[in-house]
Amino acid sequence: MRLLSRLPILFSKEWRELMASRAFWLMLLAVGPLVGHGFVNAVDLYAEASGIGGGPAALAQGLTPLDGILAPTFGSYDLALTLLFPFVAIRLIASEKESGALKLMLQFPSSPGELVAAKVVSLIMGWLIVWLPGLIAVAMWRAYGGHLYAPETLNLLLGHCLRMLLGGGVALAAAAIAESAASAAIVTLGFTIGTWALDFIAAGRGGWLAVLAANTPTAALRYFEQGLLRLNTVIVMLILALAGFALAAIWLQTGHRLRSRLFRTLALLIFTTVVAWFGSLTRASWDMSENRRNSFSKTDEAALRQIREPMRITINLAAEDPRLTDYERGILNKLRRILPRLEIFYVAQSRTGLFEGQEAIYGEIWYELGGRKVMNRSTTEPIIIEQLYQLAGITAPANSDEPVFSGYPLAAHPRGARLIFYALWPMIVIFIWRLARHFRR
Amino acid sequence: MSEVIFTVEGVSKHYPPRWALQDVSFSVQRGEVFGLIGPNGAGKTTLFECLAGLSPIEGGVIRLHQQPVTPARRKEALFYMPDGFTPWAAQTVKWALSFFEKLYRSSKDGAVELASDLKLNGLLDSRIGSLSKGERKRLLLALGMLTPQPLLMLDEPFDGLDYRQTREVMDLLRRHAARGRTLMLSIHQLVDAARVCDRLLLLSDGRVVGEGTVGELRAKANLGGATLPEVSLEEIFLALT
């Protein structure tokens, strides 16, 4: 039987198993109120900022649906992907290992890779159903008269999709390697906590640690939440997810000796590391946000692109210093996108900077280009850009005549959202769950 | 019935600190019902799992038509149905039969006939997890018989069945073998083994202590010229193990 004939049969089986899984239905049940809570709070806060109390909008320019509505609403999915989804994914393999069904499946006329592929496809389809509350929230936002910008919305959905694949890869690999579902859950949660620790440790540091930290699931998702589509993030997330699936396929082959499986695991890890490393070096990125928050103005970008020599920036700001956060978001993220040979060094010794105050050099940011060196303590965009023009000997362009993003204030109440997400959604899920049980008979 | 289709040479399996199988060798002929007997812990299930490629072996060669066959390719030659497990507990009997029928492109009539022969018709809408031990065994037998590989290995095919069902399943298996399929059965009830199997392999402590027909085993056990039922397989078993 050919692959294309086999896969639908295997997928149909995996789909039935997913639909029979309590973990899936419980996740579906929980995700409605979770998303609803995020959405209701987001709409309320957005309305307050838009002057629902009768006053003027506080900062109209800062009111973007991406920050105000989409990111917090879909942020609930990050929580679901961390705490609920791994159990659903783990069950797809662990239950068959524990029941002995895996012994039959390994004798099917399909490779272990095909078995894993069918599970992955069913997980993706299942996740699309889990997305329903989020999509309902988006539709409700539109119904309230809210604005949506398709590129940034789709970019955010892509980020969550990649995050799901990565989570699925880790969970399936853990389920295939571990003896039981409990062990697999511990491994998966351990991985997540490990990435959080890495995020924390690598904050405000450069080098390979920063490259690693930029690709943890949470950090990678942050780029999408900021409306940035980075090719290196997409490549690394996809490679890591595929590596997880491949690892699951290797460890499902119980007929192979442990040594052989370890050898193939090592080969896979080396291959993945090399591809992910090279992938992380790609610089292509697209600012999908409507307010171009990840870009300088077009005229400044064109002028700065003239800098071809390597630029070195040495920052003496601690990881938890808010000036560093501003500087990262407002300057470095934009510079990284347009300067092909940018090197950044973080030299502060402490995390908070509180105890580096005695050092006169704390707070200094040094820019080096073609042997010239200049220091500036500012983290404000116009001042830094002016400094860079001087350093590079470039004439500053005339002021940009690009239209200024005016924001989308909307003073709307989340009408009907509580009823839909807190009452109707759970009732519908329970009803369909029972119906599905009935129809399986 | 003399063509050897399956040969096992010197297969060993180590579960530290002990050897579960040591230098196990035997051959199986086309269309025969080959029985694997031995006391608990003799290595019957381990041998099946090694032959099916589900568990790695430390040494030995497994041949199909005299050609060595790798673990990955063994599923083309044989299918192993384990004992005492409940696959896909939330699904129905009807779904399981239909799934195997589609996956192996078996004939729909074959599935219907098997469901009827194994008295599964009344259970089609039942969940697999709700079946009794005997009902589950009948389903697993049906699933095994829906597979097309030339060699079918069944672990304890009569476990959980009552006396009448055992006789009916024996007849069914004999009919299945008569269509050209080779069966290898692991059986702990020696009376059943003697009744259904053409030849037997006696395993003890992971080693082969006898292979052949009941008569050949009797001769090996040196129990004189008495014939069954005077000298039963049980006595041969006790003499050889």
Explained architecture:
The complex is a heterodimer of chains A (441) and B (241). Chain A has helices at residues 3-19, 22-49, 65-83, 85-99, 101-105, 112-130, 132-143, 150-177, 181-202, 207-213, 217-225, 231-252, 258-281, 298-304, 322-338, 381-392, 417-439; strands at residues 228-230, 285-287, 311-315, 342-346, 365-369, 372-376. Chain A is mainly alpha-helical. A four-stranded mixed β-sheet of chain A has the order 4-3-5-6, covered by helices on one side. A two-stranded antiparallel ribbon of chain A has the order 1-2. The longest helix of chain A has 28 residues, at 22-49. Chain A starts with a helix and ends with a helix. The model of chain A has no long low-confidence stretch (mean pLDDT 89). In chain B, a hairpin with a 2-residue loop joins strand 9 (199-204) and strand 10. The chains are: A mainly alpha (441), B alpha/beta (241).
User: Percent of residues of chain A in beta strands?
Assistant: 5-15%
What is the average per-residue confidence, as pLDDT of chain A, rounded to a whole number?
89
Radius of gyration of chain A: 25 Å
Number of domains of chain A: 2
Q: What number of domains of chain B? A: 1
Please identify the structural class of chain A as seen in this structure. Answer: mainly alpha
Oligomer: heterodimer
* Gap from first CA to last CA of chain A: 28 Å
CATH homology superfamily of chain B:
P-loop containing nucleotide triphosphate hydrolases
Run of helices and strands of chain B: EEEHEEHEHHHEHEHEEHH
CATH class of chain B: Alpha Beta
Mean pLDDT of chain B: 89
Q: Uncertain regions of chain A: pLDDT < 50 for 5+ in a row?
A: none
Task: Describe the strand arrangement of the main beta sheet of chain B, using strand numbers.
Answer: 6-7-8-3-9-10
Percent helix of chain B, as a range, is 25-40%
General form of chain B: globular
Which structural class do the helices and strands of chain B define? alpha/beta
Q: Could you spell the SSE succession of chain A in H and E letters?
A: HHHHHHHHHHHEHHEHEHEEEHH
* Sheet having the most strands of chain A: 4 strands, mixed
> Which fold name fills CATH's third level, the topology of chain B?
Rossmann fold
- Order the strands across the largest sheet of chain A as they lie in space: 4-3-5-6
